[in-house]
Amino acid sequence: MEGYNLSRPYIPKSIETNSNMLGFKFDWIQIIESLRKDDSKIFSGQSLYNDLNLRLIDHPKYKVEHISISSKVQLTKFLNDLAGRIQKEQEVPILHFSFHGYQEGIEISPSNEKVTWRELKELITPINIATQLNLMINFSSCYGQNIFKIYDPIERAAFLLSIGPKKKIMPNKLYYYYLNFYWTLIETKDIIQSIESKGKLKNEFLSIFDYSYFLAYLDEAKKTCDKNRLKGRMTQQTNKLIKKGFKVEDKAKFISTKSIEFKGRMMLNLANIFYHHFMVDLYPENAIRFRVDEHRLKSNTRDNTL
């Protein structure tokens, strides 16, 4: 299991793996915008900021901030500074990117610079670490959910949650979806209800939950540990050894011993991946938040955890 990249978005049968999204919380909405001069201002990130600001008058616990970005250097500096701010203030933002998007990333205007998903991941991962893995990133960008392409359980989690359009989408649809989403989230504190808040329009968006992606990764790992597949692999090895003088009568014992050793190494490897990805080495409490049961690999029991 050197690494794992999903060839297509993993959409869980039910996003309600945990109704509280494993302790998801936020303190403010940070809108980061980079649009072209000829873009409509009616459905811009600035308009979303203005409308949310008015609605937050009755909810002083939350706030919304807006910044316009005109270059890659400015974006990099802002996100780097944001990680430091979070560590200092101990407050968690939702990052809302209002950019033009393309299949492989987002575009900055007026510099016309491109930021690939991989480059963006490098910038937001320190922010997610600072939030103790509570970061939500949303995209008012065409193809915003191509962010899934950079998912890799071997690396630190770049975010906990994300929402964005699956393909090209009109600005008015982006605006009304997110206006309803954020307002419902502030009113209800219910992430599931908020995602569903705009009826059929939600079908044009994809919601990513890092925990669900990790479970998908474990399902793939389970196939590697499949009893019949493992037995076949060990049988092939012993047949090669027999040709070199290995005793046939020792074959069954050898297969059994090596199979157990292989499963043990796999479990240890997955445990290390789990601890690193979910930052348990930094925040021990995340072991409870992101509990992964051993049954994902071997059986249907829930007696043990990685």
Describe this structure in words.
It is a single chain. The protein has 306 residues and is α/β, with parallel strands linked by helices. The protein folds into two domains: 28-211, Rossmann fold (3-Layer(aba) Sandwich); 225-296. Helix content is 42%, strand content 15%. It contains nine helices and eight strands. Strands 1, 2, 3, 4, 5, 6, 7 and 8 form an eight-stranded mixed sheet that branches. The radius of gyration is 23 Å and the shape is elongated.
Topology of this protein?
Layout: E1 28-34, H1 45-55, E2 63-68, H2 72-89, E3 93-102, E4 105-108, E5 113-116, H3 117-130, E6 136-139, E7 161-165, H4 171-188, H5 191-195, E8 205-209, H6 210-224, H7 227-243, H8 251-277, H9 286-289
Parallel strand pairs: 1-2, 1-3, 3-6, 6-7
Antiparallel strand pairs: 3-4, 4-5, 7-8
Sum this structure up briefly:
By secondary structure, the chain is α/β, with parallel strands linked by helices. It folds into 2 domains: 184 residues, Rossmann fold (3-Layer(aba) Sandwich), CATH 3.40.50; 72 residues. The protein has 9 helices and 8 strands.
Which properties best describe this structure?
306 residues; alpha/beta; Rossmann fold; eight-stranded mixed beta sheet; 15% strand; elongated; disordered C terminus
- Mean pLDDT level: 82
| Topology as a string of helices (H) and strands (E) | EHEHEEEHEEHHEHHHH
Q: Helix proportion of residues, in percent? A: 40-55%
- The termini sit apart by 16 Å
Biggest sheet character: 8 strands, mixed
Beta-strand proportion: 5-15%
